[in-house]
Amino acid sequence: MEHAESLLDYAFREIRARIQNGTYPPGSKLSTQEISDSLGISRTPVVSAINRLVAQGLAIALPRRGVIVADFSPQQLKEIIEVREMFELYAVKGAIQNIDYSGEILDEMEQVAVELAGIDSQNFNRATELEIRFHTLFVTLAGNSQLTKLYVNNWNIGAMFQIFMLSKMPLSKHQPSFDQHLEIIQLLKDKNEVALLEFIPNHLTPVYGAIEWIMRNGNMDMQDLFKIMLAKTEEKKI
After folding, report:
1. Residue 107 pLDDT level (bands cut at 50, 70, 90)
2. Cα–Cα distance measured from residue 137 to residue 124, given in angstroms and rounded to the nearest whole number
3. CB 57 within 8 A of CB 154
4. What share of the chain is helix, strand, coil (3-state, %, to 5)?
5. How far is CA 51 from CA 22, 56, 57, 71, 219, in A?
């Protein structure tokens, strides 16, 4: 039983990672046989893992078509980011209270932030993994396991939008946002709750700008989108 459960967890993590890094893009079919062959395990844990993905909203079961990776409207993506912001703002107080007792988490956050600051211009998948990891660690600092679980489930979906942004725009355009992770760490060390509560929404401003642009225009010219993102960031500073 324990072995079967570990295979299920393994299959779930691997399939979810492939969705998050764009290997299985939105709308693509999740083939049980192909996945079981690539993972070197039987179909049974793969089927269970796919069912879990459906339950979490990462995949959709369609009659006579099988299971496909979920695709989301701009409005749904906006709601996902709004929930992410809510979780992170809620986590601020607990994270500051626990900062003196969570050195390992803070150390990992710093390692992630440093790697993001120097990320290769084409390493989109790694950049997304690091972005997700940093913010998950931040919420974990709050010391509320249920909050962390809910946050991770929300980001399972939100990560797909992050992949979309990163894959359409050079990583150099995201560098100011990547550098902000080091500022978040410093605010944590300073235990500056007020500044963190102001900083987190500003950190998410480019994401909101991208979603709003999609909602208005239906498609994106990336140069125009980048101008919108910069403008919104400047508005937040005023």
Report:
1. very high
2. 20
3. no
4. 80, 5, 20
5. 19, 9, 10, 17, 32
pLDDT at residue 238, as a whole number:
53
pLDDT of residue 8: 92
Instruction: Write the burial class of residue 125 (CB in 10 Å: 0-12 exposed, 13-18 middle, 19+ buried).
Output: middle
Name the token pair of 23: 């290997």
- Asked if pLDDT for residue 230 goes beyond 60, the answer is no
Chain position carrying tokens 């993001």: 116
Indicate the CATH number for domain 74-237.
1.20.120.530
Whether the per-residue pLDDT at 168 is higher than 80: the answer is no
pTM of the model: 0.75
Question: In sequence order, what are the residues at sequence separation of 6 or more whose Cβ sits closer than 8 angstroms to the Cβ of residue 183?
Answer: 199
Between 210 and 200, name the one with better pLDDT.
200
Rg (CA), the chain: 19
Q: Distance from first CA to last CA of the chain, Å, rounded?
A: 58
Residue of 90, 97, 212, 190 whose CA lies nearest to 139? 90
Domain positions in the chain are 2-69, 74-237
- The predicted structure's pLDDT at residue 181: 94
Give domain 2-69's CATH number out of 3.40.1110.10, 3.40.50.720, 1.10.10.10, 2.40.280.10: 1.10.10.10
Give the list of residues 6+ apart from residue 236 with CB closer than 8 angstroms, or none.
Answer: 201, 202, 205
* Residue 193, pLDDT score: 97
